[in-house]
Give the backbone structure.
Amino acid sequence: MSNELTTQMRELAKKLLEEEKVQMVIGWEKGSLPYHSTPVFVTNPEDAQKLIWDEYCANNLASYLLDYRNSGMKIALFVKGCDSRAIVRLLQDQQINRENVYVIGINCPGIKDNFNPEKEIAERCRDCTHPEPVLYDEIIGEKPDRASDKERFEGIEEIENMTPDEKYQFWQKEYDKCIRCFACRNVCPGCSCRECIFDQGQKWLERRVVSSENAFYHLTRALHLAGRCIECGECERVCPMNIPIMKLNKKIAKDIDSLFGPYEAAVNLEEMPPLGKYKEEDPEEFM
Amino acid sequence: MQRLLEYVGIEPERFQARWVSGSEAAKFAEIVTSLTEDIKALGPNRKLRDDHE
């Protein structure tokens, strides 16, 4: 199935570029390491041959649209289920124009973890709720026949049930590892601020990499994503120190579920995040 | 915010949010008194600080 998809992708990209419907196609190409497929930016119809689809096409390509948001270019890109939610995220946040992107959806069978290729499927794909893209102009691949075998909020309650000191120890251990490379922020489709709070001259965040500052960084980022996180798990994938960042993001998603009713971010373009709109029946926890 | 801080190990009593109008002096005093009592009972916060300071 993969090879068939690869052929389809190449033909499609070639056609789009030749007909000048788009100026660029973003997809994946074979990486220089085994088990790696890396993003590729195709502007020449001949280069469409570089494109591939395999089980290591992990990168969410939607975040790259942010780099071109002011270029006025029309760009086509391939999206898996989770990536398509990133497109909805960017559209809802008014970061991109719908008419400037041509979205080619891929029915995603789940991808593999390139650090643990012996595993059948990456950990973050196990609780996937949207293997089929939620938004696309065109879709390729067969409908995936797979169900998630993991609870959406698995492992969160375990931490909730710890004592305050245990929780603190748990997180402190994780934050001690953080080297503040900002990879999690840079890869995130929700982190679209032109000037990030952590890049400003003011000392919101001190430069030294110590656990208290690291904790502040992670908590702030989690709150900025509250109700907006699309749960793609890219932050955890790119983290060189293996910090369980999604355990924080999912906790907030869980709280929002319990406060505002069941909600999955960026599944429906029309439905704005619960923290981005007002309803009379919103809970008033501290009133 | 309180839920998140609780999740990372901060006692929820340390961070409380309340809505008090400018004309509710008595309510304000009451809340501050109870907050102070809560925090006195917990003692000084040693979390989210660096050891060498």
About this structure: The CA atoms of residues 25 and 42 of chain B lie 26 Å apart. The first helix of chain B runs from residue 2 to 7.
